[in-house]
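Sanity check record (used in CI):
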Amino acid sequence: MKKLPLMLFLFPLVFASCDLGGEHYSRYYDYVDIDELSVPDSAMTGDTVPVYARAGAPNGCWSQLELYCYPYNDTLYLVNASGLYESHDGVCPEIYVTKDSTFRFIPDTAGVYIFAAQSRSKPVMFDTLVVMHAR
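Expected output for Lipoprotein:
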């Protein structure tokens, strides 16, 4: 019976010492949107073809944006981007964070190459490159 008053005294003290409304910190890497993809219409085998892409993230909690271009198969190349999201209590500066990059693609075979820009919240963008044999 003596323990009951002690428990009633300690119970509010335990909850008062807990910080239930404290700071919430988020940090993770995730995909961001590709806003622009630009590939020349045509080239010759052996040419250095610039593949331009610009990535964007919706607010200032995003940083360290990185763009990637890599082959999926012989004729399809994927372009995507990721970034670091870091926030305290979900408060983010209202700026649009961007980064652009130009990849050098050197086709060694004639044919049609497809570049697909994958985004987090936008539909996939496609651009094609027609490569002809060098004369």
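Residues 4-20 have pLDDT under 50 and may be disordered. If this sentence no longer matches the regenerated tokens, the check is flagged for review.
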